[in-house]
Amino acid sequence: MTDFFDTANNGSLLSLGAAAALLLGWLLYRFIRGRSGGLEGTLAEISFDRFEGLIIPNADEGEILVDYLLLTSKGLLILEVKDVQGTVFGGDKLKDWSVITNERRFTFPNPQPALFDRIAAVRQIIRQVPVAGRILFLEGADFPKGVPELVTSLTELADEFGEPDKNAAKNKIEAFKPHWELIRKEALNTSVP
Fold first, then answer.
1. In the list 45, 70, 87, 175, which could disulfide-bond 77, CB 3.0-4.6 Å?
2. 178-187 b/e with 16+ CB inside 10 Å = b?
């Protein structure tokens, strides 16, 4: 009779251990894949303020649209988001990048030159703050021939621009605030047709 209880307890312990291992595996998977809740979570994690759909003057007396401009502890970050799923063939010197999925194949212009223009436009307004740019490909894009310059994923973006100690970053952010307000002022003065 005691053998029955010993076997039942061992079985319960095995089931409990298996459930704990599954839960731990799922949590690890969620951390690695989504980090902080996708795009919005990552942007909240790395930025202290942000503009979306910002229109500012560019160097040729025109205007330029910035998808996201983020105030981070490392300076300003211009982010162009690409929601592309499939195999991406792109390179620094290619005019067009190709995407191949199971259903179709399509091309789009290399986003790097436009990003360089956006970086230059922001630097024209503020000169004393570091300005970086990244092209963010959301989950589902694969670069089998190598990842081009300035291309990033959500995880890489969080690793590069995340600030683990938000309190330590406050001094940097306060130093960047007057420059951030210059951007806001330029955006308000830009005429939109």
1. 70
2. ebbeebeebb
The token pair at 120 is 């230059």
Q: Are residues 71 and 150 in the same domain?
A: yes
Residue 1: strand, helix, or coil: coil
Q: What range does the domain containing 167 cover?
A: 37-189
Query: 103 and 170: one domain?
Result: yes
- Domain identity same for 11 and 72: no
Q: pLDDT of 112-139, one tens digit each?
A: 999 999 999 999 999 889 999 999 999 8
Percent of the chain with pLDDT over 90: 64
Among 57, 50, 76, which Cα is nearest to 117's?
57
Q: How many residues does the chain have?
A: 193
